[in-house]
Each structure stands twice: as C-alpha cells, then as structure tokens.
Design a protein that fits this description.
With 357 residues, the chain is mainly beta. The chain contains four helices and 25 strands. The longest helix is centred in the last third of the chain and has 9 residues, at 345-353.
Length: 357
Amino acid sequence: MHSRFFPLVTSFVLLGAASLSAAELTLSIEKTPSGGVTIKAGGQPFATYVIDQVNKPYLWPIYGPTGKAMTRAYPMLDVPGEQHDHPHHRGITFGMESAGGGAWSFPQKWDGITGEEKMTGGGDTWHEARTFEEMQANPKSALRGKQRLGMLARIVHREFTELKVDGDKAVVAEICDYLDPSGKRFLTEERRFTFRASADSRSIDVDQDLIASDGPIKIDDRKDAGLGIRLPSSMAVESKQGGEIVNSEGIKDVAAWGKKAKWCDYHGPVEGEALGVAMLSHPSTYRFPTQWHVRPYGLFSANPFGARDMDKSLPDGTTSLQNGERVKLRHRILFHKGDAAEGKVEAAFEAYAKESK
C-alpha cells in the first residue's frame, strides 16, 4: 500500500461536556497540521476533513459503525484490487461541472473533438486536474483534456467559523470561496457538517448555502454535480459481490439513476461485513425530492441541478441566481449496518424530515 496522503493530527482536542447515553459515543475534534480537522468517535477515527490537497475540500477517510472504511481509498492511497477510475471521486465531495458568471458548453461526444469549448465565467468544481491530465494522455481525448483543464475552478476553504462538540454531536462550520481559473471569486458557500455516532450507526449532516456573492450566476443543468460519495469497490453493484442500490420508491440498481426520491441507499459487503450508506434529502432542500446521480460502479451523488441531463422528459434545470440570492442544500449521510431495511433508513428519513432545517 503506497500512501499519497494521510492526515496526521495534533493534540488540540475539543470534547463535549454534556452526558451521553450508553449507545452514543463520545466525539472529539482534532486539528490536523495541514489546517483541516479529524473527528473521532469513542477515541477512534470517524472522518477527516482535508482542505489543502486538490481544488476542493473533501472528507476522507470515513469509518462506519463497525470501524470499516466506508469510502474508496483511491486516489489518496493505492490499494490492490480497488477501482482506479474517476480520480476526482475523493471520499465525500461537493462540486458542480458548470457554474459561475455565465454558462459554458461542450460537445457530448468524447472522441474526435476538434472544436473549441467555451466558458464565459465561473468554471468546473466537480473534476480536478488529474482527471484532465489523464485525458491528455489519450490522443483521442487530448484536445478535450487540455480545454477542460483550462476551465477548472477551485473551492477554497476560507475559514472555520465553528468547531464545537455539544453532547451527542460535533459541528464543523466553514466559509468557502469559489474561484474561477483566473482566481476571481464567483460564488460563496456557507457549509456546516454535523457528526453523530452510536454503536449501530453514524451520520453526517451536510448543510450548504450557495450564495451569489459577486453578481448573478448560473448553475447549468449537468449530471455531474452535487454532494457525492465514492463507496468501497466491494460495495459497487458492478463488482457482483452483493452490492445493491435502492431508493425510497423501491427502484433498484441502474434503474435508480436520475430518478427523484426522498432517499437513496447503497449497501453491500465491506471486509466481510454487510454495511450500507444512505443519503437522505431534507424536505427543505432545493428541488426536493432530489434526483440521484447514483452509478453501479460506486458513485453516489445527490444532484438537484441535473434535471434534463438525467431525465430527458424534464425541462431544462439551469439554476439562475441574482446577486445576493442563495440556494439551500440539506442532506444527511447515514452509515449503517446491513441493508436499507436493517438500517431502518425510512424511519431515519421520517425523523430527519421533522427537524427544522
């Protein structure tokens, strides 16, 4: 196993003072030398927030209720037997393929592209440089890779506004700036993570406000957008080891892609254990119920921006924000034992939906 990055932590710790029930685990927040944070549950790693490695922050590694890793290690670590596709699928990330001061478009055909792709503001925060560097290594996609690399934008951590442990939850809040390829800001995000852990499950609430802080913007209708997680290779449906996708409407596997649902669950084997990850959309989130960019190879993303790019029967889903307007995104990621039924995902959604967000 060859390490490209693994977070080390300092001894700075924030501990919760309130009493916990027997089923709940004590949470702590530790700062990392690179400026990120690690959340621990019962003294063991739960998740690390990395802010300085690529063009956007991400959560990795992430451990479930039994201590197993719940995300693919690649490209942070080279692990034998893992899938090595889509290097921009790092743990839990958020991004949008096309957003900013103006829209840009590109041909959908990958091979034989000779025309110029154009961008009139903003950029691509879904992908990363390595994505397009790999494309340039293939003569058929070299031109496209070069053009797309020039459109790459960044989500830059500005500051943490809250690092707090309060009873059964740990809170990490921050402000992020979205910068176009020239370094000009085109969007601001207020992002808040709430971590919880018990003996049977762990969860991460991801509350996001995307704010048109520097003038009007558009978020284009693209399938590659939203809050995503890349699951362990063994869980992928395509690995044929027992992985399964199911959403709140009972739609399964490849048929669940692009469908609207209150929640979506991806479960399968991880190091000999049956484990699952559910993503729940709060009723207050933008365009609830959410469309799901969920793939049999292990990508799992809640995408409210994809509309017609995922379902041709829908109207164009381009989102336009005037200066000062915001889009509110509210999701809970639940790490559980067993499948969606054993993990009580529907009950978890019902409880989540009653919370004020």
